[in-house]
Write a structure and sequence with these properties.
It is a single chain. It contains two helices and no strands. The chain has 78 residues and is mainly α. The longest helix is centred in the first third of the chain and has 32 residues. 68% of the residues lie in helices and 0% in strands.
Length: 78
């Protein structure tokens, strides 16, 4: 039977990266919704809408990458 040790620092970093990823993903989703809801009215200037959608997609992708990323330290301690 093999013993595995859990490095608490690495697991904390993994959790923090995922939490930040979720926050960025939710921010991107909220920005997408707000852009969609306000683009029909006169609240937003029409040339600004594609830029806001692009920023929203970039936030969504960055959040998704952070959610699925796995932190690996550059050097392991023995």
């Amino acid at each position: 039977m093999s013993k595995t040790t859990v490095n608490t620092e690495d697991s904390r970093v993994n959790v923090l990266i995922r939490l930040v990823g979720i926050l960025v993903f939710v921010l991107g989703a909220g920005m997408t919704y707000e852009t969609y809801a306000n683009s029909a009215g006169s609240a937003l200037q029409p040339p600004l809408v594609p830029v806001l959608y692009l920023l929203s997609v970039m936030l969504l992708l960055a959040g998704l990458v952070a959610i699925i990323a796995k932190y690996k330290p550059s050097s392991t301690k023995s």
